Each structure stands twice: as structure tokens, then as C-alpha cells.
User: Fold these one by one.
Assistant:
Number 1:
Amino acid sequence: MEERYRQSLLYDFYGELLNEHQKAVFSAAIFDDMSYSELAEEFGCSRQAAFDLVRRINSKLESYETKLGLVSRFSSAREKNKEVEEMLSEICESLEEIDKEINKDFKKKINYKLDELKKLSNEVFEKF
């Protein structure tokens, strides 16, 4: 997983556990893509202090992930949701290929159920 993407996920899941100063520094570093020199100027510290602070915050977020595993579970749920969507797409494609002798009402019912399954899968993922 790309490092910045992982850091943003860690922040999304565990950012509220940081104090306001840590949130501001990490947010500026990750989301605003500020360099350590820019962070130092913005927050009134040395470049080395900015580097150390970002490293400590990242370490703290990784520690939360090690203990709680929310990002890992989220990524796993996303992958499973993708698999469900792919299977549903394959089923829909297969239904389109089925001979036209199948009753149209039956096809509508199947398509409706498949759409409901897809919605439910997305709802479960979004609520996570």
C-alpha cells in the first residue's frame, strides 16, 4: 500500500486519538504535503523537530493499528466487497446470455434480487 495512502487511512481511523497539535502537524504533512522545512516555519520549530514529530505521530498511529487492526479490517472488507461486486457482475452478464426463452418476469426478479444484494453489500461496507 502506498505510504501516503496508508498514513491517510491511519489518520482517518485513529486521528481523533491525537492531540490538536499532533493533528495539525500530521494533517499539514500528509494532506497539505508540506515539507519538513515548511512545517518548521509553520509551527515554529526546527526542521529536525518537525521530522521527529511527524515520525513519532506516525509511529503512534501504527501502534494503534497494531493493537486495533481497523485499517487492516477495513482493507479486507473492501477487498471482499470488490469480490462480491465482481461475482454479481458475472452473474448479470450470464443472465444476459441466457436464452430469451426465460420468462421476463423471472429475469426481472433475479435482477432485482441481485441489485438488492449489491446494495446490501455496499451498505455493509459503508457502515464499516
Number 2:
Amino acid sequence: MPKLKTKRAAAKRFKVTGTGKLKRNKANKSHILTNKTTKRKRNLRKAAMTDKTNEKNMKKILPYL
């Protein structure tokens, strides 16, 4: 079987935790921040885990993580 190529865009956005889950940053934190509440912006700082429904596809895209 040939080597698999990692999707570089995904590799830059996802990290694997010790238990094998995928960690990601939340969206909507780049611009138009004046309209968003402080609480909302504060919650966007925290990393989130990738949803179980997407995890199978993500493992396919990132074979060597």
C-alpha cells in the first residue's frame, strides 16, 4: 500500500490529545469582535473537542497523527 498524504490544512488546525481525541480551536474569533459580548469572546478562547460524528473522517484525513 502506498504512503498516505496528510491534508496539511487539517494538520495545522487539529492536535491529538493523550487519549486520542482531536482538539480544535473555535471559529468566529477573528473579526467583528465589537458586536460580540465579552462572555462570548471569552468562551471562544477555549479549545474544543472534535465531534464524534466527524472523528472518523478526520482520522482518514490525518493518517499519521
